[in-house]
Amino acid sequence: MTPERIAPEDARVAEALELIRGAFAGMEGRIDPPSSMHRMTLESLTDDARTKELWGIGTPLIACVILTEKPGRLYIGKLAVAEAMQGKGLARALIGVAEERARELGLNLLELETRVELTENHAVFTRLGFVETGRKAHAGYDRPTSITFQKPV
């Protein structure tokens, strides 16, 4: 299955929202503060599809990611793979899209953030070639809550 860019008017935007909610549900009670996924709505994700890039795999959708161009880098957000499809190379395929888009945009770096508590995500991103470049605390926290990972393109 080939990743495709999802347009704002595509019905799969709603599928992406449900996929993200399902994939991130396992974080409940594990991460503090709670995921920003709770603030996502169909309207906000539709806007992301318009102003950023929403990519997905499958119909119905089984994996998705939001790519955001930032100064000098392409930010990878809300990477989600349906639980039954994990371990089948879908995250790798979406990271491949991010690498291709970064090159097309003249950017030489991919960046993402994951929560400190999600050690299994750290392992996945390390296997995909990312390295930890920093830690930061969300507002109101006196300890690191998030880890930044980067990968040269």
What does it look like?
The chain is an alpha+beta fold and 153 residues long. It has four helices and seven strands; from the N terminus they run E-H-H-E-E-E-H-E-H-E-E. The protein has a seven-stranded mixed beta sheet, sandwiched between helices. The longest helix has 15 residues, at 90-104. The model has no long low-confidence stretch (mean pLDDT 95).
Short précis:
The protein is α+β, with helices and mostly antiparallel strands and 153 residues long. The chain is built from four helices and seven strands; from the N terminus they run E-H-H-E-E-E-H-E-H-E-E. The protein starts with a strand and ends with a strand.
Mind sketching the topology for me?
Blueprint: E1 4-5, H1 12-24, H2 42-51, E2 53-57, E3 63-70, E4 73-81, H3 90-104, E5 109-115, H4 119-127, E6 131-136, E7 146-152
Parallel strand pairs: 4-5
Antiparallel strand pairs: 1-2, 2-3, 3-4, 5-7, 6-7
Low-confidence stretches: none
The end-to-end span amounts to 23 Å
Strand order of the largest sheet: 1-2-3-4-5-7-6
Number of separate strands? 7
| N-to-C order of helices and strands | EHHEEEHEHEE
The helicity comes to 25-40%
Spatial extent as radius of gyration = 15 Å
User: Mean pLDDT, nearest integer?
Assistant: 95
Shape: globular
Secondary structural class: alpha+beta
Tell me about the biggest sheet?
Answer: 7 strands, mixed
Continuous helix count: 4
Key words describing this protein structure:
single chain; 153 residues; alpha+beta; seven-stranded mixed beta sheet; 4 helices; 7 strands; 31% helix; globular
